[in-house]
Design brief:
This is Arylsulfotransferase N-terminal domain-containing protein. With 494 residues, the chain is an all-beta fold. The protein has 2 helices and 40 strands.
Length: 494
């Protein structure tokens, strides 16, 4: 007998009535043929949960993350009692599908239909989230590499742009979805064996209670899928799981990395003459921690070097009269010098860049600031610098915010580290552009003076990213953001 049909004989007033009850395919297959206005689709898109109400036919929603440079993975989490199609491709409950997008655009939508044969709803996903700020671009870079940035102000978002300034990947959350969460320092890592990783800082508000962008480092695979998160490891200076800072992060391989953290500590080693409390002073120290195979192999703390207290130009309230957490060093950036594998670190509140021995923790030299050892003139010294980098030819480049002069500039120096002399010094300025905080500069290519500049929080205007050829004085690419919206750091990486 056909299992989709049932027969029943009923006697009514002496007559025989044959009632054939047909269990239609809809019911038999578990369909819910009621209206769907009070239902929703629960999807996981590239690892992020998205709830899509079915109340309004034709409604348009945002995904938290999409990409046009890798395949997107979509999973349907809930049973709907209906046929669900995404861009005309069916998907069942508990199943996943891949979706390739050629471009991300506010005009390009992903179509989702939900049909239970009584009610049909069609809804859409924007491929370019409305939670991203308006990103306007002009020009086109002829140099290889994409741009990686995260918002410092204006929302919880990070994004990757191609050489035309078009978004090719993003993570963006609404204020409700973010719940106080923000992002910083989004970048690409190519490991020694060619493996590609991406990382960014997930910031949980003021999670360390002292006003720094603390949280955890999120590691993504080559397809932008989250594979792990990183916080501090257990050591004499930290507890396992303590938050790290979002200013910088070095990934050497999947099990070897360097992080930094700001920590509120009580110290007794502040030199005389700096108005320290006789009972001890509270300060924010920087901890740099190198971890390999889950074990701490190197640590450096700024409070282990009391000579740094007197070099601070900001956050030096050692009496704690006005601040209970003075950040006297202001850790900002760190890079490994491939010439000797030691760390070069920038501290904006010291106006100083220093090299730190990765074996001993000793400070090898200090550049700029009140403790400068290279004989820089007052005009050459940096103030509030927010980025450093090394070129392949061994030049040190610095994004000097110029907080003491009001003139932001890019510096390029060749150092004689043995004799502590500056062999070459160049500066590049852009008229009318002043970065108050954040910001970055990176020389593109070899033996050319083309720089990718992230303007950070600017004094005036809406410029966010510029690529400039200082040999010709021409801008190759210009990216602008709305007033009040800014990036923290921008890197161009092949």
């Amino acid at each position: 007998m056909d299992s989709s049909k049932k027969f029943m004989i009923v006697s009514v007033s002496g007559a025989i009535l044959l009632i054939i009850l047909v269990s239609c395919t809809l019911a038999y297959s578990g369909r819910d043929n009621t209206l769907m206005s009070d239902k929703s689709l629960n999807l996981t898109i590239n690892g992020f949960n998205v709830e899509l109400p079915l109340a309004e036919d034709g409604a348009i929603y945002d995904a938290i993350s999409l990409s046009s440079v890798s395949t997107n993975t979509i999973k349907l989490n809930n049973e709907t009692g209906a046929t669900v199609k995404i861009d005309e491709k069916g998907i069942g409950a508990g199943k996943s599908m891949d979706l390739k997008l050629d471009t991300l655009s506010s005009n390009k939508l992903i179509k989702i239909t939900v049909d239970n044969e009584k009610d049909v709803k069609t809804i859409y996903l924007r491929t370019l989230s409305s939670q991203l700020p308006q990103i306007n671009s002009a020009g086109e870079s002829s140099y290889e590499g994409n741009y990686y940035a995260a918002l410092a102000t204006g929302g919880a978002a990070l994004y990757e742009l191609n050489n035309k300034g078009e978004v090719v990947f993003y993570i963006a959350k609404s204020q409700q979805e973010a719940n106080g969460e923000t992002y910083s320092d989004f970048k690409k890592h190519t490991l020694e064996d060619g493996t590609v990783r991406y990382s960014y800082q997930r910031v949980y508000g003021d999670s360390n209670g002292i006003g720094t962008a603390s949280g955890e480092r999120v590691i993504l695979d080559e397809n932008y899928k989250e594979i792990k998160t990183i916080t501090l490891a257990q050591s004499k200076f930290a507890k396992k799981g303590d938050p790290i800072d979002g200013q910088d992060f070095i990934l050497i391989d999947d099990n070897h990395y360097i992080v930094a953290a700001s920590q509120l500590v009580l110290v007794q080693n502040i030199p005389e003459g700096l108005s320290a409390s006789s009972m001890g002073s509270k300060v924010v120290r920087t901890l740099i921690q190198e971890v390999k195979d889950d074990k701490v192999v190197f640590e450096f703390t700024t409070d282990s070097h009391p000579e740094l207290y007197g070099l601070s130009v900001k956050g030096n309230d050692y009496s704690n009269a006005t601040s209970q957490s003075p950040d006297y060093t202001g850790f900002d950036r760190m890079i490994i010098d491939p010439a000797d594998n030691n760390l070069i670190v920038s501290f904006k509140n010291l106006n100083t860049i220093m090299k730190i021995n990765r074996d001993t923790g000793n400070i090898m030299w200090k550049l700029s600031g009140n403790g400068d050892e290279f004989g820089l003139t007052s005009e050459q010294k940096t103030s509030g610098q927010s980025d450093i980098a090394l070129t392949k030819e061994g030049y040190l480049t610095i994004f000097d915010n110029g907080t003491s002069t009001g003139q932001t500039r890019i510096l390029k120096l060749k150092l004689d580290e043995v004799n502590k002399k500056v062999l070459e010094f160049q500066e590049f300025k852009v008229s009318g552009e002043t970065a108050l905080a954040d910001g970055s500069a990176q020389r593109i290519g070899d033996n050319i003076e083309v720089y990718t500049i992230g303007w950070g929080q600017t004094k005036e205007g809406t410029n966010a990213i510029s690529e400039i050829d200082f040999n010709t004085g021409k801008k190759l690419l210009e990216i602008t953001l709305p007033q009040g919206v800014s990036n923290d750091r921008v890197q161009k990486i092949k």
